[in-house]
Amino acid sequence: MENMEEQRKSSHVLGRKKGGLVTMPFIFANEICEKLAVVGFGANMISYLTTQLHMPITKAANTLTNFGGTASLTPLIGAFIADSFIGRFWTVTVASIIYQIGMIGLTLSAVLPHLRPPQCKGEQQCVEADSGQVAILYASLLLTALGAGGIRPCIVAFGADQFDEKDPKQHTKTWKYFNWYYFTMGASMLVAVTVLVYIQDNVGWGWGLGIPTIAMFLSIIAFVVGYPLYRHLDPAGSPFTRLLQVSVAAYKKRKLSMVSDSKLLYQNDELDADISLCGKLLHKKHMKFLDKAAIVTEEDNVKSPNLWRINTVHRVEELKSVIRMGPIWASGILLITAYAQQGTFSLQQAKSMDRHLTKSFQIPAGSMSVFTFVTMLSTIAVYDRLLVRVARRITGLDRGITFLQRMGIGLVISIIATLVAGFVEIKRKEAAAAHGLVDKPHSMIPISVFWLVPQYGLHGMAEAFMSIGHLEFFYDQAPESMRSTATALFWTSISVGNYVSTLLVTLVHKYTAKPDGSNWLPNTNLNRGRLEYFYWLITLLQVFNFVYYVWCAKMYTLKPIEVVKKETAKSGEGGVELANRV
């Protein structure tokens, strides 16, 4: 027995050499290059679509948000593959290669002249890209969206996997890790909207897309080289299958009366061992209709259970956890809808304004997002180094405030951002009218582009609170065997937010059109539009959304898990405690 205990300890010591901070450069390299590629193109994509492919503004805006929506929906596929079959490392590796192929296609479409329409001979003599040229663009975008679907949900969860919560030498606070992750991501976005956008506007789209393509190739090599250092957690089987099994079992037993004591519900530690390494989920009294899936009847073989008829309490609580997260997930949609306007109409505003820093140099319109990312990074740094310490003294919480409170603050700031954006648009149009430029959409209005800084900065601050809190919420509150799937939910909220933006733009453009040709969102001349009304519509929707969120946050119950107490573990008593992850 003594030799076995020594071997177990030795094995545990060896295991601690895997993972930890040493793996972060390899993992973050992949995330940095993916963001360089997608943001470097996305930040200036509307310029590419309107100036290179000659699309109308509204069509280009909808193309951009549709692409963003699709790229944020595919993480469900990547998460399913990672959690069910091949694990996170191989999912990220294969997805990165697919992403690389898509980036090569985009670069070729920008380099080869026959993949673009001819240059305009005049303002009114532009030929829109034909179906073949658009098809090549969309095929390349689809490949990058599929690649992103494997990278986004897995790379953040894979990074968190490198810290063993049960090992004091590798333990790290989850909220700190997500701050690091988002800070690194934001820094790469900052480079994308400055250096890459400048290259695209002043050197050429070939180099502007070629550089992130090369960077992506190097990141794949770096990520694979780190393989021996990583902690690799085996996939625990399809989470969707388990959720479906619980649903079917509960339906089959819907006519049964509920047991008087929850302790009589089915438990099987051996069956749940692979999906409850950090502790079992404990029974909660709400959604009792699902508890019927864990009622033991004479027909059930508890030693070799048919999971389509009977499930453990842990598996039932997995489904409850996912259902509980749904309303909070929905609350993040409209923030993304508001944020999406920076890459569409806010960028068009910037293109019409005075962007000169000196007589010979002007800020690329696509680089205005730099104010978003600088504010976001600054907010994260101040939050991590100052606000948390102050809040900790007041609340007693290690992270200062809960992630639910952090998300609420972000939603309020986002409301202010779109409200301000509407007033700035009024100021821009007043300047256009004062200088007789209302009917000259391609002329520069003599008003500084820095009037747009408040709305860009407020969106960055909102993201530092809401998006990080949202991401941490999904990872923390999801069952441990579904963490890739949970982080995919974060990206699906971004997806739906982009699609809602597309829907809003389409409906507003359609139903505000008048016989005289006026429109809130005109195709060519924003000076004749009512963009401020569109911003205020989004503001109003966000106010309703915030009220909805407050109600959901008050109703939400944190998942309780059963973990071994440290003091009892040392004495071998095997005691347990409840851990509500806040």
Approximate helicity band = 55-70%
CATH class of the largest domain: Mainly Alpha
Total domains, how many?
Answer: 2
Low-confidence stretches: 1-16, 564-582
Cα-atom radius of gyration = 26 Å
Note down, in words, how this protein is organized.
The chain crosses the membrane at residues 21-43, 63-82, 89-115, 135-159, 180-199, 205-230, 322-341, 361-383, 403-424, 444-468, 489-513, 533-551. It holds the Pfam family PTR2. By secondary structure, the chain is mainly α. It has two domains: 17-234 and 332-562, Growth Hormone, Chain: A (Up-down Bundle), CATH 1.20.1250; 239-320, no CATH class. Helices cover 65% and strands 3% of the residues. Strands 1-4-5 form a three-stranded antiparallel sheet. Strands 2-3 form a two-stranded parallel sheet. The two termini are 40 Å apart. The model is unreliable at 1-16 and 564-582 (pLDDT under 50).
Write the layout of secondary structure elements.
Elements: H1 2-15, H2 24-42, H3 45-52, H4 57-73, H5 75-111, H6 131-161, H7 174-202, H8 205-225, H9 239-252, H10 269-272, E1 280-281, H11 288-291, H12 313-331, H13 333-340, H14 345-352, E2 353-354, H15 370-395, H16 403-434, E3 445-448, H17 453-477, H18 483-511, H19 531-555, E4 560-564, H20 566-571, E5 576-580
Parallel strand pairs: 2-3
Antiparallel strand pairs: 1-4, 4-5
Subcellular location: Membrane
GO molecular function: transmembrane transporter activity
Pfam families: PTR2
